[in-house]
Amino acid sequence: MSQPRVVVHASPDLLAAAVAARLVTALVDAQAGQGAASLVLTGGRTGNAVLEHVRDLPARDAVDWSRVDLYWGDERFLPAGHPDRNETQARTALLDHIPLDSARVHAMEPSDGRFGDNPDAAAEAYAEILAKNAVPYGAVPAFDVCLLGVGEEGHTASIFPDSPAVQEASRTVVAVRDCPKPPPTRISLTLPAIRTSREVWLMTTGDGKAGPVAQALAEGDEVAIPAAGARGTERTLWLLDPAAAAQMPAGFLPPKV
Length: 257
Prior knowledge:
Helices cover 30% and strands 17% of the residues. By secondary structure, it is of the alpha/beta class.
């Protein structure tokens, strides 16, 4: 696993714009090297802002979007089209504006989908999708980029501190119940699945995130701060604004960009 690297951007909007530019470049490079690219999407304010910036970038058309496989790191287990679903928000922000191959858009099942109100079955079905696309072998594709947010208690995807999900060592996708943030039921990749990614980018802003960011990077205890366990095989980036970086040791911080 790679060691974390921190990049601090001067404001949340500049962070989103910079990540969008970085993402387009990463997808173009992946396609140049292997013909296709794979991306794990996240929800939340910063994740959606990144997608909106990608939508507005002239360089977005350098990506062959028909050769991008899209996955989600987690999903709120709600009916299809619900405005709080990460899929719905991603479609509004970007996906409805680019020429995707619908067969390569791998959304998690909604609560009114094939499995009804059974998040365990929906999680198992998503694990099967991952395994099917993990060619030539493996349980999960080697995602080129995995985008993640970080919560005020240190959660990432829908993996919360001291939860069964953070303890999971074998399954790649799990149902998550009794989340401390609404809605209480979700589906999430596990840390072992996230760690198959070549690059993991953890994006967060605001002074409410400063404590868990500092703790994750200083201590690395993924049970207490699950974001600490999200690492890429080749690169792990923490993309922060000054408020989120405020409690980090001075020697750990790079200059602001």
